[in-house]
Amino acid sequence: MILATVAILVGLPVLLWSAGKFVDGASGVARHFGVSPLIIGMIIIGFGTSAPEIIVSVFASVQGNSGIALGNAFGSNIANIGLVLGLTALFSPIAVRSEIIRRELPIMLAITFIATWQLLDLNLSKDDAFTLLGLFLLLMGWSIWQGIKGKNDSLASEYENELESGATPVKANVVWLLAGLVLLIASSRILVWGAVEIATHFGVSDTIIGLTIIAVGTSLPELASSLMAVRKKEHDLALGNVIGSNMFNILAVVGLAGVIHPTQIDSSFFYRDIMVMVAFSVALFIFCIGIKRQGRLNRLEGGAFCLAYIGYTWYLINSAFIG
């Protein structure tokens, strides 16, 4: 038990730090070869912020711990909206100015509905997983197209500012890219082992561990980047990071987990956790799409997200660890 706790306390910070270095290195290398800031932001940074979820879920699936894989993916989406955007909006209301973000919101909602529909039979099959991965490839193609034609979008200028502020020599970027990837893999294996051991010790499902400890932990990069973005008045960047991460989590993380280890899910996971994710996603869409007004997530709405997330997490802990 002590060793498992140490594994999580060490593995999680190393995972988050290495993910950041991996993103910095990949972004710097892409920038060196003339890739546009918008493409770097939508694809490389979007992929990188979901790297903890992807690597953790892949290793969990390989080891047969599908509960951690799916709990991590869907739990991270819940944490991204309820915790990350909720706290960020409390700090500073988030205005939606980017047309790309306005297009991504319905896409994110559609992807959420598709995954929910797939799991109505409480089974994540290989066909379901390959469908998600196929949609992921389509999303990548759409993102590249938006990156090519959306150079004047406000999101593009915010990514440009971020990349210029963090410019480093290409050799250093290559080193961080490789080192970050190696540490991502190593820390993920340590984290998954520790999570499984703790779940076994307390007699709770690994799904609950994935939904709580690991989901919150792997959402910390989104929290840090979103808070930093609104501090710089880069509101579209704060929202775009979360929307991109949520789409990556469903399509890439769940897709890869299902291909590696198709699995049955518990009905409580569907009717409790997936429904919470759907409710949060619908609420975010309504708040931010801005019908007849500029879309924005204000402090009241952010506070509502935070309270809902706290209530949801308390219920999980109370039912799993106490009741």
What is the topology?
Layout: H1 2-32, H2 37-49, H3 51-62, H4 66-91, E1 94-95, H5 99-118, E2 123-124, H6 126-149, H7 154-165, H8 170-202, H9 206-218, H10 220-231, H11 235-260, E3 263-264, H12 267-289, E4 296-297, H13 299-322
Antiparallel strand pairs: 1-4, 2-3
Write a structural description:
- The protein has 323 residues and is an all-alpha fold.
- It has a single domain, classed as A middle domain of Talin 1 (Up-down Bundle), CATH 1.20.1420.30.
- It has 13 helices and 4 strands.
- It has helices at residues 2-32, 37-49, 51-62, 66-91, 99-118, 126-149, 154-165, 170-202, 206-218, 220-231, 235-260, 267-289, 299-322, and strands spanning 94-95, 123-124, 263-264, 296-297.
- It has a two-stranded antiparallel sheet with strand order 1-4. The protein has a two-stranded antiparallel ribbon with strand order 2-3.
- The mean pLDDT is 82.
Identify the notable features of this structure and list them briefly.
mainly alpha; 323 residues; 13 helices; A middle domain of Talin 1; two-stranded antiparallel ribbon
Compressed to H and E, one letter per element, the order equals: HHHHEHEHHHHHHEHEH
**Helix/strand class:** mainly alpha
Roughly how many Å is the radius of gyration?
19 Å
**Count of beta strands:** 4
The largest pleated sheet is described as:
2 strands, antiparallel
Query: Which regions are unreliable across 5 or more consecutive residues at pLDDT < 50?
Result: none
Instruction: Please report the first level of CATH classification, the CATH class.
Output: Mainly Alpha
Distance between the termini: 21 Å
Per the principal axes of the C-alpha atoms, what is the gross shape?
globular
Number of helices: 13
Instruction: Estimate the mean pLDDT confidence.
Output: 82
